[in-house]
């Protein structure tokens, strides 16, 4: 009979430890001092592909038209359905948020009311970003059209519906470390930043484990398509035999060396990449040639 109190005490201890370890990160006071530049933010916004997920599902990304970030796109995953939120500068979006709160959401995956966001929001990649780039994105978002679309709830089954557990997931899978540890040239270093951080390319191109974390041992080696149709390709040097010039041209025009054309989600990626300076596309190509090949 004496084992019962000890068992209960152990259970409480484990639960308490889990509660502490899963706590959302506090917003750093230093974020409040950041000042964004909307013009610089326009390019960082394109590199980060924000419109690809948050634009009105019936609209198309057009470099000449400011996107309406109404959200509403539905994403089916093995863990449930996520719906992209409204992040336009309206009260229904992020209009009432401070820039510091927006930066904290992108860098740490924590909402203004101190709740974890699910990693369908690629903050695991954005956590490596320069905070100035993130506050610039926030400043650019302030300049975009408003949308009064109300956010729709996510549809998750137990236990994935317990958002607090995401804190433990973050401890396992969110790291500020670069996957390509050594960048031999400034160009590769810039490409690493764009691919591993702002561009969050690995979120689609790298396979995931049972808990949804990226398998960094198979970095950029391809993965099942989240839509359920086919696979996202392996773009490591072991399989992608395109030259750096071929990669640059593809990111600019969408045309492959075989005169095929980008389709699916890559359509919007190419439209975003085409807005960047040519030097950024060249840096991405150099990075892709520098990462280890994975068969």
From TrEMBL:
PROSITE patterns listed in its UniProt record: CYTC (PS51007)
Annotated keywords: Heme, Iron, Kinase, Metal-binding, Transferase
GO molecular function, one term: metal ion binding
InterPro entries per UniProt: Cyt_c-like_dom (IPR009056), Cyt_c-like_dom_sf (IPR036909), Cytochrome_c-type_DH (IPR051459)
Transferase found in the keyword field: yes
Stretches assigned to the Cytochrome c domain: 36-145, 186-292
Transmembrane segments: none
PANTHER family per UniProt: ALCOHOL DEHYDROGENASE CYTOCHROME C SUBUNIT, BLL4482 PROTEIN-RELATED
Protein's UniProt name: Diacylglycerol kinase
Originating organism: Histidinibacterium lentulum
């Amino acid at each position: 009979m004496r084992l019962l109190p000890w068992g209960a005490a152990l259970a409480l201890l484990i639960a308490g430890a889990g509660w502490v370890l899963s706590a959302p990160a506090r917003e750093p006071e230093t974020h409040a001092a950041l000042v964004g530049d909307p013009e610089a933010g326009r390019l960082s916004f394109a590199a980060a592909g924000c419109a690809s997920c948050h634009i009105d599902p019936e609209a198309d990304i057009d470099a000449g038209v400011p996107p309406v970030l109404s959200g509403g796109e539905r994403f089916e995953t093995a863990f449930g359905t996520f719906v992209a939120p409204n992040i336009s500068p309206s009260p229904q979006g992020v209009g009432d948020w401070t820039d510091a709160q927006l930066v904290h959401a992108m860098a740490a995956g924590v909402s203004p009311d101190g709740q974890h966001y699910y990693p369908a929001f690629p903050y695991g990649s954005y956590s490596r970003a320069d905070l100035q780039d993130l506050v610039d994105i926030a400043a650019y978002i302030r300049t975009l059209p408003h949308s009064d679309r109300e956010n729709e709830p996510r549809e998750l089954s137990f236990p994935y519906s317990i958002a607090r557990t995401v804190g433990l997931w973050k401890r396992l899978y969110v790291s500020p470390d670069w996957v390509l540890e050594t960048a031999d040239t400034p160009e590769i270093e810039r490409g690493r930043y764009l691919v591993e951080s702002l561009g969050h390319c690995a979120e689609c191109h790298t396979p995931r484990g049972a808990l949804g974390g990226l398998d960094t041992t198979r970095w950029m080696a391809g993965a099942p398509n989240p839509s359920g149709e086919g696979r996202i390709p392996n773009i490591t040097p072991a399989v992608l035999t395109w030259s750096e010039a071929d990669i640059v041209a593809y990111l600019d025009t969408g045309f492959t060396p075989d005169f095929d054309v980008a389709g699916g989600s890559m359509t919007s990626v190419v439209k975003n990449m085409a807005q960047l300076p040519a030097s950024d596309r060249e840096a991405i190509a150099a990075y892709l040639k520098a990462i280890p090949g994975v068969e």
